[in-house]
Amino acid sequence: MDRNDATKRFHGDDALAELIDDSQPVELPTPDTDVPMVSRSVRLPLETYERVRAAAEARGIGVTTLMRQWIEAGLADLDDSATVSLADVRRALASLSRPTAA
User: Fold this and answer.
1) 76-97 b/e with 16+ CB inside 10 Å = b?
2) CA-CA 20 to 30 A from 33: which of 16, 67, 85, 93?
3) Residue 81: helix, strand or coil by DSSP?
């Protein structure tokens, strides 16, 4: 339908309203999280984005997920509520128990 046909069909009558009223309800997709999310745009140099993309791909996660993890880790570090992995704790403890060369 071109613009002229659409104008003729819907101008001056209730055809559009009837068309909308007759439509079937559409189910929206279920959000993947219970936590409300906010979308923000971040401008990155291409080289930086490619590095982030490669890091995310190596971890088997999406770019947005990795960026969110990094932001959350950085914020946790700011208020000393950082969460560290058990593997990192074990490595740190293991390095403490080794005698150092004098």
Assistant:
1) eeeeeeeeeeeeeeeeeeeeee
2) 85
3) coil
pLDDT digits over 16-71, tens only?
666 666 567 778 777 777 888 888 899 999 999 999 999 999 999 999 999 998 99
Angle at alpha carbon of residue 37, lines to 44 and 84, rounded to 5°: 75
Q: What is the pLDDT of residue 63?
A: 94
d(CA 66, CA 60): 10
Question: What pLDDT was estimated at residue 66?
Answer: 92
Q: CB-hemisphere CA count at 13 Å for 51?
A: 5
What integer pLDDT is reported at residue 23 of this predicted model?
62
CA atoms of 74 and 81, how far apart (whole Å): 10
**49 vs 57: CA distance, rounded Å:** 12
The structure tokens 């982030």 sit at 52
